[in-house]
Amino acid sequence: MTIVILKLFHYLAIVFSGGVLVGGGVIQSVYTKENKIPEIHVAKILKILGYIGLLSLLILWVTGILLSIILYNGFIINSAFTVKLIAAGFLLGFSIFTNFHVYNSSKKKLPPNKKIMKISTMSGRGLLIIVLTAAAIAFY
Ligand code: HEM
Question: How far is the CA of 36 from the centre of ligand 1 (A)?
């Protein structure tokens, strides 16, 4: 039962983190194309999406660590799993960094840096694809 619940939350968190990346990415790309800065309410939405993304990554880590220990007695499973862990670590790092940046800029009443937001959205997408591919190979 514990394993089923952990897996359910692991999968739910994947849905949320992916949704945030796609949704936030679409909103940002519309503004970038128009060369406009998101107005206050949209900026607020992007900030909340960032928090949801970070929270879902933390849930992925907590449930993932527990699943690894319960099902595999640790983190040495296979090389694809190691790749998955490294990419998931980078994803978490990017998410923490971007959330800090958005938080700091909104505190200074400035829009987030366009370049930082673009790079973090693109890397987030790429890293998520790497993590999912590595998960598919690791548990083949
Ligand atoms: C962005 C982060 C992550 C994503 C997108 C992700 C994605 C996935 C997916 C799609 C599966 C299902 C694979 C399958 O059953 O074929 C899975 C399973 C699993 N994940 Fe993650 N994961 C993430 C982070 C983590 C982390 C950080 C850990 C461990 C520290 C972890 C440990 C596991 C384990 C042990 C399973 C296998 C459970 C089983 O044997 O059924 N995951 N993950």
Answer: 38
